[in-house]
């Protein structure tokens, strides 16, 4: 060993880096996308894996702009790039220049097949879903008791609805043993009627980490639960099949707690505001009553009472006088209208016309009023009606006026 020249870790890593980066400056790799996590800097970090190995990758934001799709865990992708060695960690990764969809990943294909199967059974139908109680008294959480999800839920409920009782039903949230235990906890909560609402979920993770919440046994347990179930698996971009079977899907565990406590928080605010307004109103009226009662004494109560009553009596007298005047004016107006109507009727009466010297001549042979000389003939008997009587006459001649 002494005869072999020694290398420092940095020197060895540099040799590896030069060899890898020079010989693999452009490679095309196909694999299933996993642990996809956009960074605040705009870069995309991810893993590519197959059944036997995994490689880390990065795509810088200037290259991401050329993508025509949104990378998601489970996609089968084909990427082109170069290998890069990160010396401080002694790890290598692929720096992606191009990315395209190669097909459906094994996990996504499996989940899609399972989703279609359960959907055909009606497990995701909207009419199966139950409304959440407006004011739950007890909430049960099916999750890891040491996970961030439980901590976030307890923090939100403690701040928004401290009166809600919380029961934690411990269960692993990843790994092969997680799904049966999660399903068992849901069934136990229903068997013993432990809560008004069930929150089933965990914090964020890769698609593989979230798989227990897509297992058929968990989905069926959530769909069959008599207690309303809120699914809160991962972050907003994450999903699991139990989201579709649950009565409500929350984007995060914190959001689940907010949804459950929303009505209670609003009611608490409303009660506090109403109590404050009521107290303020009572205080205001008491102060006003004190001010009103302060100047009153026994000896001048009658005088003050008259001071209150007198304006009312004056208003009553004024109203009475106004009513009488209005009635008088109305009667006078009606009398004048009747006189005018009577004058108009009398002016148009035939008797009034006759009293001015006019008469009505009727041909007794025909019974018609004579308005024209042609309405009578020589020898016709005529009846001349005057204002105070009538005259009978015989026509001796007819004379027409020359127009």
Explained architecture:
It is a single chain. The protein is elongated. A hairpin with a 4-residue loop joins strand 2 (44-49) and strand 3. The strands form three sheets. A five-stranded mixed beta barrel has the order 1-2-3-5-4. It has a five-stranded parallel β-sheet with strand order 7-6-8-9-10, with helices on both faces. Strands 12-11-13-14 form a four-stranded antiparallel β-sheet, with no helix packed on it. Helix 4 (148-160) runs parallel beside helix 8 (253-293). It folds into four domains: 9-109, Nucleic acid-binding proteins (OB fold (Dihydrolipoamide Acetyltransferase, E2P)), CATH 2.40.50; 132-264, Response regulator (Rossmann fold, 3-Layer(aba) Sandwich); 296-346; 353-394, no CATH class. With 403 residues, the protein is of the alpha/beta class. The protein has helices at 9-23, 61-64, 106-120, 148-160, 178-191, 216-224, 242-245, 253-293, 301-347, 350-355, and strands at residues 27-38, 44-49, 54-59, 75-86, 91-104, 138-143, 165-170, 197-202, 229-233, 248-249, 360-363, 368-369, 381-386, 389-394. The protein contains ten helices and 14 strands.
Q: What's the gist of this structure?
A:
This protein is an alpha/beta fold.
What distinguishing features does this structure have?
single chain; about 400 residues; alpha/beta; OB fold (Dihydrolipoamide Acetyltransferase, E2P); Rossmann fold; 4 domains; five-stranded mixed beta barrel; five-stranded parallel β-sheet; 14 strands; about 40% helix; about 25% strand; elongated
């Amino acid at each position: 060993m002494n005869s072999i020249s020694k290398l420092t870790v940095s020197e060895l890593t540099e040799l590896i880096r030069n060899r890898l980066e020079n010989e693999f400056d452009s490679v095309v790799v196909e694999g299933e996308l996993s642990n996809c996590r956009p960074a605040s800097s705009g870069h995309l970090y991810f893993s590519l894996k197959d059944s036997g190995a995994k490689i880390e990758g990065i795509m810088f934001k200037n290259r991401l702009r050329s993508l025509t799709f949104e990378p998601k865990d489970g996609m089968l992708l084909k990427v082109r790039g170069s290998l890069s060695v990160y010396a401080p960690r002694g790890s290598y990764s692929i720096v992606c220049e191009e990315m395209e969809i190669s097909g459906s990943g094994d996990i996504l294909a499996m989940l899609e097949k399972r989703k279609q199967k359960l959907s055909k059974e009606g497990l995701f139908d909207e009419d199966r879903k139950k409304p959440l109680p407006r004011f739950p008294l007890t909430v049960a959480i099916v999750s890891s008791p040491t996970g961030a999800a439980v901590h976030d839920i307890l923090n939100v409920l403690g701040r928004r609805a401290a009166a809600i009782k919380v029961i934690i039903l411990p269960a692993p949230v990843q790994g092969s043993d997680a799904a049966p235990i999660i399903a068992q906890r849901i069934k136990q909560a229903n068997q013993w009627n432990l809560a008004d609402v069930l929150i089933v979920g965990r914090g964020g993770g890769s698609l593989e980490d979230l798989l227990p919440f897509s297992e058929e046994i968990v989905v069926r347990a959530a769909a069959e639960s008599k207690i309303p179930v809120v699914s809160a698996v991962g972050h907003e971009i994450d999903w699991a099949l139990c989201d579709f079977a649950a009565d409500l899907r929350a984007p995060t565990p914190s959001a689940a707690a907010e949804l459950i406590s929303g009505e209670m928080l609003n009611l608490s605010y409303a009660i506090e505001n109403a109590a404050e307004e009521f107290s303020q109103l009572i205080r205001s009226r008491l102060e006003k009553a004190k001010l009103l009662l302060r100047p009153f004494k026994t000896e001048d109560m009658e005088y003050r009472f008259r001071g209150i009553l007198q304006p009312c009596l004056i208003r009553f007298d004024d109203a009475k006088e106004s009513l009488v005047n209005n009635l008088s004016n109305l009667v006078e107006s009606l009398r004048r209208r009747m006189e005018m109507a009577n004058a108009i009727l009398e002016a148009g009466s035939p008797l009034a016309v006759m009293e001015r010297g006019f008469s009505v001549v009727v041909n007794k042979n025909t019974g018609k009023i004579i308005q024209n000389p042609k309405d009578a003939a020589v020898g016709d008997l005529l009846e001349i009606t005057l204002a105070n009587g009538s005259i009978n006459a015989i026509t001796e001649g007819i004379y027409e006026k020359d127009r």
